[in-house]
Amino acid sequence: MAKVAFELEFIVRSSPTILYEFVVTPTNLAQWFCEKCDSNGDLYTFKWKGQEDKAYLIDNLEDKLVAFQWVGTEDDEEFFEFAIQKNEISGDTVLVITDFAEPNEVEDMKMWWEDQIVKLKKMIGG
Known about the structure:
Layout: E1 4-12, H1 16-24, H2 26-32, E2 36-40, E3 43-48, E4 51-61, E5 65-70, E6 79-86, E7 93-101, H3 106-124
Antiparallel strand pairs: 1-7, 2-3, 3-4, 4-5, 5-6, 6-7
């Protein structure tokens, strides 16, 4: 079954520069995204409850975009992306997450991301 893309937007009370550090730096990712994170160049290792997943940093535009592709996947359906935008009207920093999931798992994944963003906001103070 083909995975489907979904997108979530969150207002984060932070500068784009600080938010960027929380989505690209292994130490910061381990504070909200996973239990442990290490990197060796562009290869990141994420650990959750004894499970380990590896992903390559495939896109990195400072203060704007970070994207990872899971190791062992060749199609475009196995990546996740953090896009950092500034709302021109309100001045808010907006984190746009793009991810993929099986059609019957999209709602669960959205809830998982919402829980992670609560942790992120606590870490950033926003």
